[in-house]
Amino acid sequence: MLVRWSAAIAATILLSSPVLMQGARAADKLTDPQIAHIAYTAGVIDINAAKQAQKKAKNKDVKAFADDMLRDHEAVNKQALALVKKLNVTPEDNDTSKALAKQASDKLAELDKLDGAAFDKAYVANEVAYHKTVNGALETQLIPSAGNAELKSLLQTGLKIFQGHQQHAEHVASELK
Amino acid sequence: MKPGRLFSIALVFAATVVPAHAATIEITMENLVISPAEVSAKVGDTITWINRDVFAHTATATNGDFDVTLPPKKSATLVLKKAGTVDYYCRFHPNMKATLKIEP
Question: According to the UniProt entry, where is the signal peptide (chain B) (predicted)?
């Protein structure tokens, strides 16, 4: 999941061909309303994944992990909504949000076909990959592009908490093997 | 009647007895950081953890002595009953770690 997005981000950072540099410039132009939309969408995606896992997961560590994801991502998104309201900003849909949402719904459908240990493993593996991608995007794109100081600070708190999620997911994944 | 004298006795009593046993130590959890990360206290002291985050946290002793739950923006207290050095962390965010040094 999100392979294309993460590949695009990695490419814009690591490579310097003219086309990719153009991509990087386009990425630099993300506005605060777009950044807010991307961050919120990314949260909703993980909330939906956690809700699916709460219904389908069998392993107790996987269930507990899903509970943690739901609690933390809902808290961050609640904070994000309060902030955009306070700043009188309307989150603006954009290509990155759309690509994220599309890939996430494909992944939900894919995971829905799995059960038991196979589901647990696939869900946790995807959580590792997903948090890696989102954290990379926060670090290299969203946080540096954010103009408003409060938005930037919320994204930084998000990064910190999601880095913990990534470690947690990696730990659960290693226990499942 | 010597109310003045009685009052001064009460004051002395308060000054000598209470502080030795009733210290309250505040520890904050903010932005996923516990601070101070190391606290010295005595048996009988009260620890108050203040959660300033929008996230739920816990103060969970690695040795099983305590497991305090801290809902978002709430605080909770614990009276220390046993001496020893106790490491604790947040079960939800295990990168949050701290230590209590509890003297008898």
Answer: 1-22
